UniProtKB/TrEMBL annotation:
PANTHER family: PYRUVATE DEHYDROGENASE E1 COMPONENT SUBUNIT ALPHA (PTHR11516:SF60), PYRUVATE DEHYDROGENASE E1 COMPONENT, ALPHA SUBUNIT BACTERIAL AND ORGANELLAR (PTHR11516)
EC number: 1.2.4.1
Annotated protein name in UniProt: Pyruvate dehydrogenase E1 component subunit alpha
BP GO annotations: pyruvate decarboxylation to acetyl-CoA
Amino acid sequence: MHIPEISLEDPSHVCFAYTHSGINTNAGSKIIHPIHVSLDLQNAAVSSYIFSSFLYSSSSFFNPYIVVAMLSLLVSPSLVRNSFPRAAAFSPVARSLFSTTSSANSNVVNITLPETSFEMYNCERPSLDIEISSDKLVEMYTNMSITRRLEMTADALYKAKKIRGFCHLATGQEAVAVGIEAALTPQDQLITAYRCHGFTYMRGGSLVSILAELMGRRDGISKGKGGSMHMFAPAFYGGNGVVGAQVPLGAGIAFAQQYLGNKTTTFALYGDGAANQGQVFESYNMAKLWDLPCVFICENNKYGMGTAANRASASTEYHKRAGYIPGARVDGMDALAVFRASEWAKEWTISGKGPLVLELTTYRYGGHSMSDPGTTYRTRDEIQQMRSTSDPLMNMKKRLIDLNIATEAEIKAIDKESRKLVDQAAKEAEASTEPDVGEFCTEVYVRGTEPKSIRGRVPEETHYFY
């Protein structure tokens, strides 16, 4: 493997890349893996490069992905903003939706979570008592309604053959993205794997940019080149297709936050399937060694690709996997439990106590991906039981009604408006054109090393770019 290198071909920018040996093209082009960022050249660039050399020479145990992620953020905190187009609308449209439903003067309500919300490991349980505004509760429901409708629309577009390739939906898991985001600030960082549409929206991606990306259109959040698994937004690092590879990157981002002295945290998410990856344990080690402000989150939806978690893991107590890192198992079907756990975890990490491992127990209603019916390794009755007893939207709806915050009719109005917004976004996304072939290599190769031609898209075809 090669040391990360800095290219100063363009004096106004610095290109930072990490390459594996064996994937350099015969034309000398270096394919970036797993990330490519185009950064504004700041005075930190040279010192960052020297620091990277120090890290590589001082010890052999460093995971280079962690170092690259840390250095990328160190050179410029705005790397994602510069590398990918920003969403058309930074803030979720939920803010305009819920304001028409909630009262003019938002009331503060006190809620006590069930005792079963948390199961702790080597740490004390956070308080079950939550003080939260009624507006925020309605906003959380609205965001879940929008993300549910977003996934349903993606499902329909895929079946209509308007979305191609991989597509992993998170229908049933809405409480995770919404609950986490309710506890974070825009300065906190988040990275996850696929099944990332809801996270992209909650981190600031517009509905149009997400749906356009799914359909491979120019207005997509990654210019139509990333698809379902590769979406990015400010303070959101994806959306990554390699199982578990995002976890060391998350540790690297947390490393940068600590180095810069920022009182912020990184949430690094992965699934129960990725929990068995060796690089996850490497990341645990580094995070604990330096007490990084990193919250490792196992999003346990009970099933991997084609099998139940208990058939693939010797232990399904994922919150205990790190051993030397405290953890908690959280009811991931309850947005408020996720919110409370995320709030507590953030405070834990930024106070210097080191990393945490959270296991959010949730459930996906669909298959692993659109090619998986999801019923060969579980029964339809099981799915229906989860829908009828543990659905995250149903749980929040019941709270809103029981607390006299919203009526049944007002909640139906939110759902209706959510559908209208997503349907309109789908029309706009579909009207977007496909990206120009000249975009084929941008943000894929180190600037200046793009190949002069590309072959293999169709038999006997060679396309020359210039």
